[in-house]
Design a protein that fits this description.
Structural class: alpha+beta
Radius of gyration: 37 Å
Bound molecules: zinc ion
Strand content: 15-25%
Shape: flat
CATH architecture of the largest domain: Sandwich
Amino acid sequence: MALETELYDVLGVSSTATGDEIKKAYRKKARNLHPDKNPNDPDAIRNFQELGAAYEILNDPNTREVYDTYGMQGLAGPGGPQNGQDVSDIFAQFFGGVPGASFSFDFGGPGRPFGKRNKGEDSVIPYEVTLEDLYNGKTVKVNMEKEVECGVCKGSGAKGSAKARKCVACEGKGWKHVYSQVSTVRIATTRASCNDCHGTGEILREKDRCKKCKGEKVVQERSRQEVHIERGMTDGQRIVFAGAGDQEPGLPPGDVIFVLKAQRHESFERSGSDLLATVHVTLSEALLGFDRILINHLDGRGVRVASPRSKVLTSGMTIILRNEGMPTYKHPDVRGNLYIVLEVEMPNEDWINSVDHKALASLLPPKRTDIEPLPEIVDEVAFEEGTLAEVRARSFPADSGFFDQAFPSQYGEGDENDWEDDDVDEDDGGPPECQPQ
Ligand SMILES: [Zn+2]
Ligand SMILES: [Zn+2]
């Protein structure tokens, strides 16, 4: 029996109408009430919208049920009558008055609808691994604790032959509709677990509860599991222990899922099955070549490389070490490449002060001379070292207290009363002082 019939009245059907009758009534009314057909009626748009909204609520069995049980109040938001809102206000808000506004309902929301779960909750555990772990593979033992069905009460939660009773608050469903107003014309509907029975739909009296699990139906059980991190696994990869998760009475247990979180490596970057590393070479190596262990690999191996004769190396030059990248997951013998970016290290001042400059100059390529033709005016400017951070800091005159000082002038001569006008165009109020030139 419906509490209110207003929405039914809008559609012109009885509160016992079938879904088909509601659909038919809506189609017929929509044709008659369409604003294009009623150009002289100032309420045409509103009437049409009300019809649409009424139909949307009654056409969906979930919202219709809520409306039948709680009326518009039930659709207005959590808390219902306690929030002291007048039903007609809610009705007005709900239907808005905004031409072209649309109505929508989000059912279920993220995650599974309550009561439709077919196994226990999964446990997702982030697990930090190093790049070495992912390159070499690793087996770790972890202690796990999970919920299993209580053996004493066989998962009923009850003592002896005591029986749970149907939860009154949710009528045994274990969930209730929760409504939240997204905007004046939009109400989101989600299902929320019933607080009274914690989503079980049943309530067990204190004295009827199983002693071992205290009516929880499950008990904690510890176990030790081996987690195999396989060669070539990647950041974010999931290692699933099917059925190792929490068990809920009457359902198969959930899974335990380890999600790998790769830590940053100080020498290597990974891109799929390729690796990238930066190697510093000296000026001598850049000019005369090298033949040495360039890098210690992730498995501890030294990787020796010789550069070709007469090859001048520059900063940023990249070399490819084929098949020295990451192993491929499930095919660890197939490996990507290791890319090495060379960075030429210049010698320091101690070195330059210790050598004969003339002798060095005679060996090095010649210095650059002044550009030709010489400009008419040439100024001498002092050489001074600087840092970019200083330059950036100086480029903006505003310091942290800038806005406090400049506040009154930002919006002209006005006093506080100007702020009552919410339509102040912000473009007019920009402080000219803070425009970087
Ligand atoms: Zn028990
Ligand atoms: Zn309940």
